[in-house]
Write a structure and sequence with these properties.
The protein is mainly alpha-helical. The protein contains one helix and no strands. It is rod-shaped. The relative contact order is 0.03. This is Sjogren syndrome nuclear autoantigen 1.
Length: about 110
């Protein structure tokens, strides 16, 4: 019976050691889980902050794009109007030169013809 008692004691010791190992592994796993949960919280917080920044940038970008479109439209309209003014100025200058020439001929003394 002493051999059985010794064997039983050996089994008991091994069982206790296995259980202690399981507890140790469980504690390590709990530590890893806690670290990952903390990392998850940090990442979720970062995502929230970045999402808010993204929304602000998108809104600002939309406003700037609209302003640029207004600038482009104003520039195009101004250039068109300026081109029309140049064309009108050229026409006016041409007419003015023609009229000045006509007036000069009309006011020149007439030559006598023999």
């Amino acid at each position: 019976m002493t051999q059985q008692a010794a064997a039983l004691q050996t089994y008991n010791n091994e069982l206790v050691k296995c259980i202690e190992d399981l507890y140790s592994k469980r504690e390590e796993l709990n530590r890893q889980i806690k670290l990952e949960e903390e990392e998850k919280e940090r990442l979720q917080h970062d995502i929230q902050i970045l999402s808010e920044k993204l929304n602000r940038v998108e809104k600002s970008l939309a406003q700037r794009l609209a302003a640029r479109a207004t600038f482009d439209r104003t520039i195009a309209e101004t250039e068109t109007a300026y081109t029309k003014i140049l064309e009108s100025s050229q026409s006016l200058l041409s007419v003015l030169k023609q009229e000045a020439g006509n007036l000069s001929r009309a006011t020149e003394p007439r030559r006598k013809e023999h």
